[in-house]
Specification:
The complex is a heterodimer of chains A (296) and B (236). By secondary structure, chain A is mostly helical. Helix content of chain A is 74%, strand content 3%. The model of chain A has no long low-confidence stretch (mean pLDDT 93). Chain B is built from ten helices and ten strands. Chain B is globular, with a radius of gyration of 17 Å. Classes of the chains: A mainly alpha (296), B alpha/beta (236). At the A-B interface, helix 6 and helix 7 of A face helix 2 and helix 3 of B. The complex binds adenosine-5'-triphosphate and magnesium ion (MG).
Chain lengths: 296, 236
């Protein structure tokens, strides 16, 4: 095994971790404020990918709009997922606040319906976005040589998302409201804050991040049915490992799981999934609240 | 004296337990203290006024507008602020963030700057977390959080609880100044000295009802009433 190979596998792990982080940070954000385990988070990923692609396809086919097609698809995918998330929160989840089991069951139901509807509307063929010219093809990386530009961009985007979330949570009034709501929702309301509105904003943001993940993920790899479940489970594992409701923890969880998955596939492809669960079991045994999770 | 806050025949039940059994009281421009033993329903009354627990019967009116059923955030925006029992700081927020959370734009009597002038200790600890403060500092922050909402009335639920005597003196000063500026004050207390130093009228709560209302001086002198309603023992 050469050093070049080891770095490549690790870099592959980090690019995967970047995608996991983008998706799971939305999941973690929603859980953190609302204690809602959103089992339809993977569906929001799918909605981002499918709606994004339905906007992308015709634009990409025309030479006049070819250059912007991907960027517009990103905006459309994020917006569609955010709108779907807001509808979910307002119509279904808002009024069953605090009833975790009911919310989990309702979101499982919604995820089944969404997957079926997407299948009915768009059909079951896999599809993939083409990265825009700026991000297409390889970039020269020291030691390992040529490496996918888009995958490097993915890491940069995840960093931008992480920094953006940090600034939002720590430097804005909305962020103060969100953190106060995690501590004591009722007292936050007694301070005159419209907590349901804050919840809708957080749901839109968390769902939008799933939609962003959908378009990014479907640019890196083709999307087929079933990825909703894969990304839901990955998000769950990432936040369990990293700590529920902590952005830093989500980043650590995503890196651990992403890198472990790639190394697992490189070393023992048939059993690679065991590595993921070994990490989860180890964390749960030593720190049940997750690596950066708070107790209580 | 016109009524700012008027509570009429208010009932609250938790399952089978009938906790508020028809509370009626009126708060005007003068501060009012509410005293009573543990578990009599004082905090429940505060929460019912704030809509933090549901009252199915009775009415709560602020300047004639019914507050019941509109939810805590609207009650707060109509002008009722609560300094809750146990202070309920937000552990994730710094002192300064507690203030930013509630500070309003525009011209108001209470601003973040004025809070820092009034409570210099808070200014010194503006970057500290709400849970890193001493009990007295936490109480000042809880009061500041309520004042910054520039409410018509502020409800304080046992603000002197757990504070050292010299801090309690400071607290009494602060409460008197707030009341003197024209903000309505409903003060729930178990510390009789605080209650009678801040208000001239004291209402006494016994098992979910206002049993009687008397002047602070009267209550100060009536050892028998103190023993009966508050379990205060003298002698030693
Ligand atoms: N959410 C609740 N569910 C059930 N019972 C409650 C609830 N909140 C309060 N109670 C009960 O209602 C009664 C009155 O409680 P409350 O907190 O209003 O008393 P209090 O007068 O404020 O007492 P203290 O001086 O100790 O603060 C108590 O017996 C308490 O156990
Ligand atoms: Mg109480």
């Amino acid at each position: 095994m050469t050093l070049q190979y080891m770095i490549t596998v690790t870099l592959n792990g980090l690019t995967l971790a970047a995608l996991y982080f983008i998706v799971a940070s939305g999941f973690s954000l929603i859980f953190g404020l609302m204690r809602t385990v959103n089992m339809a988070h993977g569906s929001l990923y799918l909605i981002g990918a499918y709606v994004g692609f339905s906007v992308f396809d015709p634009l990409y086919a025309s030479s006049a709009t070819y250059d912007y097609a991907w960027y517009i698809a990103v905006v459309a995918g994020v917006a569609a997922a955010a709108v779907a998330g807001v509808i979910m929160q307002v119509v279904f989840l808002g009024w069953m606040q605090g009833q975790e089991l009911r919310q989990a069951l309702v979101t499982i139901g919604l995820s089944i319906i969404v997957a079926d509807q997407l299948l009915a509307i768009y059909g079951g063929n896999p599809f993939q976005f083409f990265a825009p010219d700026l991000l297409f093809g390889p970039t020269l990386v020291p030691v390992i040589g040529r490496y996918s530009t888009f995958r490097l961009f993915q890491i940069g985007l995840a960093l931008a998302v992480g920094i953006g979330l940090w600034v939002l949570l720590n430097k804005t009034r909305l962020g103060i409201m969100v953190r106060a709501g995690v501590d004591d929702r009722q007292m936050l309301a007694a301070c005159g804050i419209n907590v349901p509105l804050v919840s809708v904003a957080v749901f839109a943001l968390g769902a939008g991040l799933a939609g962003l993940g959908g378009v990014i993920g479907a640019t890196a790899q083709p999307v087929a049915l079933g990825v909703d479940v894969k990304f839901l489970l990955t998000s769950l594992v990432v936040v369990i490992v990293g700590g529920m409701g902590s952005i830093g923890g989500t980043a650590i969880g995503a890196i651990l799981i992403g890198v472990a998955e790639q190394w697992g596939q490189a070393l023992f492809p048939t059993y690679s999934v065991i590595l993921t669960f070994a990490i989860m079991v180890a964390v749960l045994a030593i720190r049940p609240q997750g690596i950066l999770g708070r107790t209580g | 004296m016109s009524a700012l806050l008027e509570v009429r025949d208010l009932h609250v039940r938790f399952g089978q337990a009938h906790i508020l059994q028809g509370v009626s009281m009126t708060l005007g421009a003068e501060p009012l203290s509410l005293v009573g033993r543990n578990g009599m329903g004082k905090s429940t009354l505060c929460h019912a006024i704030m809509n933090m627990v549901a009252a199915k019967e009775g009415s709560v009116r602020l300047d004639g507008d019914d507050l019941l059923g509109i939810g805590p955030s609207r009650v707060a925006r109509r002008g009722v602020a609560l300094v809750p029992q146990g202070r309920r700081m937000f552990p994730s927020l710094s002192v300064h963030e507690h203030l930013l959370l509630v500070a309003r734009r525009g011209e108001h009597p209470w601003t973040v700057d004025r809070v820092y002038e009034t409570f210099p200790r808070l200014a010194e600890r503006r970057r500290n977390g709400g849970n890193q403060l001493s009990g007295g500092e936490q109480q000042m922050l809880a009061i500041s959080r309520a004042l910054l909402m520039n409410p018509r009335i502020v409800i304080m639920d046992e603000p002197s609880e757990g504070l050292a005597p010299v801090i309690v003196d400071h607290l009494i000063d602060v409460l008197r100044k707030i009341a003197a500026e024209g903000m309505g004050v409903l003060l729930v207390e178990q510390n009789l000295r605080v209650a009678t130093s801040v208000s001239e009228t004291v209402a006494i709560m016994v098992t979910g009802r206002i049993a009687t209302t008397m002047s602070a001086r009267q209550l100060d002198e009536d050892r028998d009433a103190q023993r009966r309603y508050l379990g205060v023992s003298h002698g030693h």
